[in-house]
Write a structure and sequence with these properties.
Layout lengths: L3 H10 L7 E5 L2 E6 L1 H4 L8 H9 L3 E5 L5 H8 L3 E6 L2 H10 L4 E3 L10 E6 L13 H10 L1 E12 L23 E8 L2 E2 L3 E4 L3 H10 L2 E8 L4 E8 L3
Amino acid sequence: MKDIFGKALLDYHAGNYTEDIITATNISDDDELPLPYLFRSYAEMPELEQKALQLCKGRVLDVGCGAGSHALWLQDQGLEVTAVDVSEGAVEVCEARGVKNTRRSNILDISEEKFDTILLLMNGTGIFGTLDQVPHFLQHLKHILNTNGQVLIDSSDLQYMYDRNPDGSIWVPANRYYGELEFTMSYKGETTEAFPWLYVDQQRFQSLATEHGFTFDVMAEGENFDYLAKLTPTVP
């Protein structure tokens, strides 16, 4: 896939900011992802993100690190952070901004290390892709967690994006879970191929996490049906 995301981050970091990333899904119109937002300071972050960073402990794996804003704050607090992203450009920007330990990697390719905190923010469940992939990812996350480790991950309930019946129920697709989206990004005339991106409601995520050996606790809730969850391995 074209590294449109990385190209945009590199442009902004180099002072070549002329436009934002345009995102689109199969259930929504085009929307802007402002590049300055990806370089935000801790004070500029939503409370849900601030809460997640405050909860981090020990050795941290920052998955989908983007421009490195989370990793930089955690480093400043004295934590050991490994920042990973599938975007080569994102990793270059992280390094240029001072993130000490970076890696271009898919989380599924990390298997020989252990972490105390695995951090997945900005709809961290997105990387699961589809609902049927959640168990596979949960088992992998458990494999790379230290004893007493934690996964801090956020997502949203997309019910609000669908038409509602008088009885309160919603019209949902017959062939897929309503949080499964097809996503594209466009920047400077280039567009990625569509890729799957998953949003999971709290109740369903808790059920899946519990089924696959985690305790699930909601640590914070946002204003747009978003939430931060902490997953900790269940003691046998």
